[in-house]
Amino acid sequence: SLVVLFGATAGAYGAKLGSDERELILLVWQVVDLHSKKVGTLHKSLVKADNLDLSDQCREVSGLTPEGLGKAEPLDRVLQQFSQLVSSDLKVLGRSSYTLCSDGQLLIRQVLHPETSKKNFLLSDCFYSFYDLRKEFHTCYPSSAAVKDQTIKTMAEYLGLGTDEAEEDFGVWQVKTMVAIIFSMLSEGCNHVFTEPETVKYKYETGPCSKSETVDSETVIRARGLPWQSSDQDIARFFKGLNIAKGGVALCLNSQGRRNGEALVRFVNSEQRDLALERHKHHMGSRYIEVYKATGEEFLKIAGGTSNEVAQFLSKENQVIIRMRGLPFTATQEDVLGFLGPECPVTGGKEGLLFVKYPDGRPTGDAFVLFSCEEYAQNALKKHKEILGKRYIELFRSTAAEVQQVLNRYMSTPLIPTLPTPIIPVIPPPYTIATGSIRDCVRLRGLPYTAGIDDILEFMGDATGDIKPHGVHMVLNQQGRPSGDAFIQMKSADKAFMVAQKCHKKMMKDRYVEVFQCSGEEMNFVLMGGTLNRSGLSPPPCKLPCLSPPAYAAFQTAAVIPAEAAALYQPQALLPTTRTPQASAAAPPTVTYYPAQAAQLYMNYTAYYPSPPVSPTTVGYLAAPPGAVAAAATATHTPILPQPGALVRMQGLPYNTGMKEILSFFQGYQYAPDDYNGLIQLSDQARSVLQAPKEWVCL
């Protein structure tokens, strides 16, 4: 038996059904016995939506009103009635089982499954298998229109059936016409057999992905704007109703190892991918998620792996993966199993543990753990920030793709890692960012990402004459993309105040821009990752007392590259080539707002003490180029040992370590004499290049 099902939402109708996240307001159905060609009672049920504001198209097509829907039952009650009435009709027809049959896939995949998932109640098993009448019709009548162009009306016209919709209520005509089409397909001339129903996966299946696999680019999308704590199961729930390939969710990490709010999702076929694209700007909680096309190469770059150890670890299917971070370097498998305890047994015991190591075998302090069920994983997550040895351990949900990414990153890490580019503006001397408490600067927030220096000058209007030379500073985020922020240095605090009053919330292109007055000190504070608005100043993450060592003061002010070393730091090495500002060679000398060759672009780098989840626990150091060291030595007239091997690097020091402890540690060894002011006597400019948290560089 078939249950012919038709539905409508409070929003779009037809090919866009479900694309606007509007709720279901109508269900119409009828049971059809394929053997006896008898039908049951036709049922029509209105559904009370949480939002009764109907779109104009819905009002026009359906004829429904908010008043009428206000008296209806909610969706969960309607679905209970559906099951009861279908069972009753089947008994009358002498049947016991049935499969749904709908006009296309949108009602089942794009409306019912997403809405019930958001409202946290389960659909019965019958909604996980259904026949797509359009596909069945095209199989029976190959000369008919393509599946994507079919509608109930075009199928009826192809068969010569009556198409006067005005004779019946909305929904009733559609179901009656679908039943007539089915009977035509069962006639002696066709003898169509319904054999291969569409299926909806009950849950997302995890699994590994090899770089040698071939991934069709027509099956991959990129989801952007995800909450940082989202897991692969959360993403699968967002795409509920669509079939994601096994191991097809890959959460993306940024260069510091933290989730960047993006994920690549691989579906079983291009049809499912196209339906996923219709969920662009649908909501996950209070956030809307952007959905774009992606390529198979991008997916393999994130999710693919080559390590046999990882493949063996991930070979156990349908496991919940937890990442542990901050483990003591001496921690063993027994220590980890003892920390987790008997209430959260690890799958396979020691085989369910994977320690992350550097290429030379040193532990990174990270590990992945497998659990056989959600209950055990939840018990493990309750141990977040409990103590193992003398360290607290962080635990987070993880994915198979994240395991691959983390292992790939650490295994490709050089033995002496380098720090990602810090805040090093490309500024020819002597132009530096002013510091101090004088509020002679303004901050522009909410700039269009395509905005350039010329757009800012046009936005400032007459106030451009009050900008200091080289006083326009664009800001990039941690990924090297425009952050929407810029800082302007004005000639006086009064000028900055006037600009903030005049230009606040003024439009630039299609966006309004907020303008705040600030000081040079506050400007540097924001460049370090703090926040500044009309409510005051909030410190950057690396300044928090619980995260920052007492003596840590790297990059307190903007670093300026020495002239001799500037050649070693080409702009293309520091900044993405796509954001190279346009030169303005023809600008007159009296109107010089920024260097002729490039605008001042700053990387808002705050990853020394990254917040969870999935960020590395250690950060390397920035190896100073020989030119920088030599330049600094020349500037300060301090001799630097020329021979190679004179520098040693100390890593993993306690945060409160001072010079006295380090000199005591090297007792008995000869070090550079008369050098007790930082262990390397360099200028402040060169020191800012070399300095890094938790480490000392010694001669």
TrEMBL record:
<dbReference type="GO" id="GO:0003723">
    <property type="term" value="F:RNA binding"/>
</dbReference>
<dbReference type="GO" id="GO:0006397">
    <property type="term" value="P:mRNA processing"/>
</dbReference>
<keyword id="KW-0677">Repeat</keyword>
<dbReference type="InterPro" id="IPR036397">
    <property type="entry name" value="RNaseH_sf"/>
</dbReference>
<keyword id="KW-0507">mRNA processing</keyword>
<dbReference type="GO" id="GO:0005634">
    <property type="term" value="C:nucleus"/>
</dbReference>
<dbReference type="InterPro" id="IPR012337">
    <property type="entry name" value="RNaseH-like_sf"/>
</dbReference>
<dbReference type="InterPro" id="IPR012677">
    <property type="entry name" value="Nucleotide-bd_a/b_plait_sf"/>
</dbReference>
<protein>
    <recommendedName>
        <fullName>Epithelial splicing regulatory protein 2</fullName>
    </recommendedName>
</protein>
<dbReference type="InterPro" id="IPR035979">
    <property type="entry name" value="RBD_domain_sf"/>
</dbReference>
<dbReference type="InterPro" id="IPR050666">
    <property type="entry name" value="ESRP"/>
</dbReference>
<keyword id="KW-0694">RNA-binding</keyword>
<keyword id="KW-0539">Nucleus</keyword>
<feature type="domain" description="RRM">
    <location>
        <begin position="320"/>
        <end position="400"/>
    </location>
</feature>
<keyword id="KW-0508">mRNA splicing</keyword>
<comment type="similarity">
    <text>Belongs to the ESRP family.</text>
</comment>
<dbReference type="InterPro" id="IPR000504">
    <property type="entry name" value="RRM_dom"/>
</dbReference>
<dbReference type="GO" id="GO:0008380">
    <property type="term" value="P:RNA splicing"/>
</dbReference>
